[in-house]
Design brief:
Number of domains: 1
Number of strands: 10
Strand order of the largest sheet: 1-10-9-6-2-3-5
Structural class: alpha/beta
Distance between the termini: 20 Å
Helix content: 25-40%
Radius of gyration: 16 Å
């Protein structure tokens, strides 16, 4: 485990972007696992800037996102497909056909979960998985549980997660109650994992995840078992 402590959100974002950019330079056809939420936005902005400066080429990059809300189509402004398009994909030269986000409106959600796991397996695992961490220790939408969820699955979101995401919706009643999320098996199969965390409110859960017992009650604690985990944080 490698931990990089930074002064503030901007320096955290730049550091994380450097790690992602290095991956692209070293392996132009890298397969990335990507995360949504407020924390990675700064890293995405930095990657866009470097692309516009001619320093990065996304033409061969492929991506898979961690999760998606159930019931939201990709053109819904709160869907994670919409988020990724507007925060990254539309601003670089990535082939949109090489970007994959779980289909939250699939007729058969279980079949969609199986498709997603099959895609990860076909890649032989992701080259680099970017993660954030929730206030309750969730990664993706893998919520605290009595056992680690291995495969991509439909999850009932905890009330704390619904409350945390309510700020993005007109009302809390509009927040989806379920999501499709990549499971721990697919996440842990990534060759490298990059976890980003920012803000004082993340300090306690980050400490529990990285130094506490490995338990499904703190889903991110499973990351302690990965052999190439880098944590970039600004949580002072």
């Amino acid at each position: 485990m490698r931990i990089i402590r930074t002064e503030d959100y901007n320096s955290m974002s730049r550091c994380a972007a450097k790690i992602m950019a290095a991956q692209i330079v070293l392996k132009p056809d890298s397969i990335f696992g990507l995360a949504t939420g407020s924390t990675p936005i700064g890293a995405y902005k930095q990657l866009i800037e470097w692309y516009k400066n001619g320093d990065l080429d996304f033409s061969l990059v492929k991506t898979m996102n961690l999760d998606e809300y159930c019931g939201l189509s990709g053109d819904h402004e709160q869907s994670y497909r919409y988020f990724m398009n507007h925060q990254l994909f539309n601003h670089v030269n990535i082939d949109i056909n090489n970007t994959d986000v779980p289909n939250g409106i699939a007729d058969d959600l279980q079949a969609e979960c199986e498709r997603y796991d099959g895609l990860v397996k076909s890649f032989g695992g992701l080259d680099l998985q970017l993660l954030g961490i929730g206030h309750n220790g969730h990664i993706g939408f893998n919520e605290p549980n009595t056992e680690f969820d291995k495969n991509t699955h439909v999850v009932d979101l905890k009330q704390s997660t619904i409350d945390a995401n309510a700020r993005f919706f007109k009302s809390i009643d509009d927040v989806p109650k379920q999501a499709i999320t990549m499971g721990n098996k697919s996440i842990m199969s990534a060759k490298k994992i990059l976890l980003v965390a920012s803000g004082k409110e993340k300090r306690d859960i980050l400490e529990r995840a990285l130094y506490g017992p490995i338990t499904p009650e703190v889903p991110a604690s499973v990351l302690q078992m990965h052999n190439d985990l880098t944590v970039v944080c600004s949580v002072e």
